[in-house]
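quick one before i forget lol
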Amino acid sequence: MLNVPVYNESGEQIGSEQIEEAQLGGQVNAALLKQALVMYQANRRQGHAVQKTRGEVAGSTIKLYRQKGTGRARAGNARTPVRRGGGLAFAKKVREFRQSMPKRMRRLARNQAVLAKIQSQDALIVDQLSFEAPKTSRFAAMLQAVHGDRGCLVATKGGDPMLYKSGRNIPRTDVLDVAELNAYGVLARRKLIFTREAFEAFRQNLSAKG
C-alpha cells in the first residue's frame, strides 16, 4: 500500500491517502515508459518541411559550358546542388512520424508514471483547492507552499476552468483534467499534484478497470 500525502493550501500536511501499488502496475517498467515517451514525442512532430531536389528546380538541363578548354572547373547544369539556386542533394520531404500503442499499454504507462512519482515522493494531494474566480497570485503561492513552483502538473476533476485560468500563465505548470493524464504529461514535470476530487476519481477509475 502506498501513501500519498495530503496538504492544505498553506503547505501544511493534514493527512494522507492510500492507493494499492498493484493497481498502478506493481513496479515501474522503464522500457514501457520509454516506449510511451518516444511515441508521444514522435506524435508531436509535424514533418511538413518540404525542399526541392535538382529535378524539381525550374531551369534548363543544358550544360553551362563545354567540358574542356575553358580553363575553368567543369560544370553541369544550373540546377546542380553545388550551385546557388540549385536543388538540394538530400531534400526534406513530407514525413509521417506518428507511432501508436495499444490502449491498455498507454493506460499502463500512465499508471506506472504515477507510480514512479509516488515512489519518488513527488506526488501529493492538495485539499479543498477551489477558486471562485481566476487568481494567479493565489495559485502561485499554493505551488510555492507545496514546493511545486519548479515545475508541476496539477490534475483536476472535470477540467476546472477557474484553476486552469489561474495556472495557465505560470511557467512550467500544466493544469489538466485527471481523465486526460498520460505518461508524457506526468513525467515531463517535476511534481504531480492532485486535487482531492481528482485523486478520488483517479482511484475509482483504477478500481473500475481492475
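fyi The CA atoms of residues 6 and 125 lie 5 Å apart.
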